[in-house]
Amino acid sequence: MIRANAAEVDASIAVSGIGLLTPLGDTLGAFAEALYEGRHSVTNSQELAGVGESRIVDFDASRYATIRGMRVYNRTTRLGICAVKLALADALLETENLDANELGLVTASTFGHMDTLIEYDRSLVTVGPQQTNPVLMPLGIPSAPGAAIALAFGAKAFSITVATGGASSTDALGLGARMLQSGRANICIVVGASGYCQELSLSAQRAGMLTSADNFRVLDRRHAGTVFGEAAAAFVLERVSDARSRGATPKGVICAQASTFAPDPAGIESALCRACSEALRGARIAPSKLSLISSGASGLIESDRSEARAILATLRDAAERTPVCAVKANLGDTIEVAGLLQSLVAIHSLRSEMAPPISRLEEPDIPGLHYLMQKSDLDNGYALITSTSYTGACSALVLSANHGC
Amino acid sequence: MQRHVVITGCGLVTAAGNDLDGFWATIMRGASFIRPLQQFACPEMDTLMGAAVELPSSDDLPTTVDSIAYRSRCTQLAIAAAGRAVSDAALASGAIGLERAGIVFGTTLGQERQVADLSEHWVREGPDSVDSGFLRRCDNHGLAAVIAARHGLGGPVLLSATACSSGNASVAMAYDLVSSGSAEAMIAGGADTFSRLIYCGFRRMGALAKDVCRPFDRRRDGVSFGEGAAFLVLEEQEAARQRGARIYAELAGYGISNDAYHMTAPDPNGDGVARAMRQALETTSTTMVDYVSAHGTGTPYNDVGEARAMKAVFGDRVRNIPISSIKSTIGHTNGAAGAIESIVCALALVHQAVPPTANFSEPDPDCDLDCVPGEGRPMRVDTCLNLAAGFGGSNVCLVIKRPQ
Amino acid sequence: MEESLRKIVATIAECKAGFPVTAHLRDELGVDSVRALEIIFEIEKEFKISVPEERYGEIRTFSDLVSLVKDIKG
């Protein structure tokens, strides 16, 4: 149903279902437990010397979902489909019972099609078009993972792919929320997935971005680079009023989201701070109301510093008492999935009133923030999610677990 | 808070010209620029047909962006078109706070040529061919970022991908950001160039036209591709008036849907397209439409499905509404198409005329639309629809009206 | 040979291999245009033949497919 009258816009957007696949678990409970214990899934790469990575071992999509056509989809797409399946189950929804015209999908994917594109094009050159598997062509474009996921679940309201690198899923959550607020659908799934791609890891290694498993630390004085990680996560979003009227309990509420841009790395700090301030203004809360910062710091030295300084500038007087966590320390940088993972960590932490430590953090690089070095009690207030991309996108999201906004 | 959004700048680079007046005059003649391509080829395929852009040397790709222009052609086209749009809107004049201005960039294939470049090297050097810059060069967000950096934008800088409706989807997303007050101004549009993936893939599917595409014609046999880029500048109406901006048209709103039918084939009933159109009309309180810029790719399936959707939405009135496809002139420009066709709608309002469908001579009774054969037609134009139906099923219909 | 063809079709159509030889590929087994191309691709690889595009239209049922492959292989 479309609400054309702006005065009727329903602002509160609930997270009514969460699904995730990570090397540390595929349920929120198991994943959170791993985080509270400070565990991480980063090991040394078998393929690239001196490089750490975090990979999902023994992933078998058929354990989660039986979807026609899935057999030709790449790993990233299959991960995404499985995360959505889990999220819908968590939301107590079955697609057969949904009005497909009221189901929308936003997919966070920047590199999700790359391994298929590389395989297809390489085949054109090595064996020629006639010997190249034709089924790969439609799967080699950036919208392919999203289109496949929308097809799998019959999302007929809309299907949009957001490709803003490391800011993708934070931006995607903002887009999904806005689409619901303007009545373009009754339910919006937001999904992000990131599967291993050898060529991208190789390039990152040669660019000096990656470090070994032993040297991987986030926000620490000894940070030396990042590692790539695999994961998938999905949220089911709906208007709070709709969730309540069908008897579902919102797990979290999306209050506001803002995106900004920095043309070069030196500008990230101020652009991210602007995004945070704008998100806080949109949520109508002061920085002092934040209970938790779920940061996107990834171990890249300058990027970590920009992120820390942006958070400091946003929090001001509240900086020393507002806990900061960083899930990339546990899973590596899952790029497009990061914002969703940061958000589900925040939701779980607020609901349980306990936040996880930043794994392997011993000596914070930038002073002034309340970095969590052990798990910590938490007030159930609001959380701020901060994300950036290698290409200058900055994105911030404010959410809560109990309050309406 | 819903605010009115207007188009204050247009910029495009297409096979039919790179300046608005020249482009309009050319498409109104009903010529076709789908020709044998000299500068692009695919393995084991004869000379390919397509509509190529010619750029002056002032639009050469800066070597700081990429020293190898061929593989960054999409970026080059985008920079050229965005520069023209920004100039046209006088966006850099200081009247708009660029810190709260951004861009939504749509593309179907993005940096596919970076992968094509890699393949050429991989066959000789294997993994050694992957250099330190590859990750950055094939990151499609970089397309939006390079434009944003060149024009000092500090607001939302987004890359959206919905296959060939990406141009329209980007304009729709930018519309939402301006009308809600999340941004002061947004650049919106898209770019794409010729790609091996799409030529080889469509050829294999039998969906490539043998010579030129013939939208809605009985003899149509497939798509012809073009390269291109186009961007609109969108602003809030009152702010645009106050700064004395030239207002082309009002972007009144949009409708969106997804077929969820098949990864490549459109829903033959045109249900998804019809839903997007109805939503566009309802949300903008539009009852009368004077012109529709169709998706009109020239494949047997697309055109008949689209015609069905038009009939379902407009009923008997459909024969009174001119519905043309300029893909007949400039080819299917993929991510640029929606933005180019939005500019066509804006120019139709300015010039009070509608462009023709080129290459049309034999009507198809299953399509049975007034597709404006021959030359463009002067007529009263107040309201246009711009329809895009993407590969994989994403449909976006924009409503573009005479400014109040 | 029919057994291999049956296996290819069953894998791609995601159906059981016991379908009748007269089964209509599109209408009964749900083989759409892209899956049809994939079947041809796999057949060309498996039997080391090349199926001319002009003959694609001959393939409506599974038995059509069997006949075509027999004909090309000689």
Q: Which characteristics define this entry?
A:
heterotrimer, B: 404 residues, alpha/beta, Peroxisomal Thiolase, Chain A, domain 1, ten-stranded mixed sheet, three-stranded mixed sheet, globular, C: 74 residues, mainly alpha, Non-ribosomal Peptide Synthetase Peptidyl Carrier Protein, Chain A, 3 helices
- How many strands appear in the DSSP assignment of chain B? 15
CATH topology of chain B: Peroxisomal Thiolase, Chain A, domain 1
CATH superfamily of the largest domain in chain A, by name, is Thiolase/Chalcone synthase
Radius of gyration of chain B: 20 Å
Chain-averaged pLDDT of chain A: 95
Q: List how many beta strands of chain A DSSP finds.
A: 16
Quaternary form: heterotrimer
State the order of secondary-structure elements of chain A, H for helix, E for strand: EHEEHEHHEHEHEEHEHEHEHHEEEEE
For the biggest β-sheet of chain A, the strand order reads 5-4-6-8-1-9-16-15-10-11-13
Strand order of the largest sheet of chain B: 5-4-6-8-1-9-15-14-10-11
Q: Give the largest interface.
A: A-B, 80 and 84 residues
Helix fraction of chain B, binned, reads: 25-40%
How would you classify the helix and strand content of chain A by structural class? Answer: alpha/beta
Shape of chain A: globular
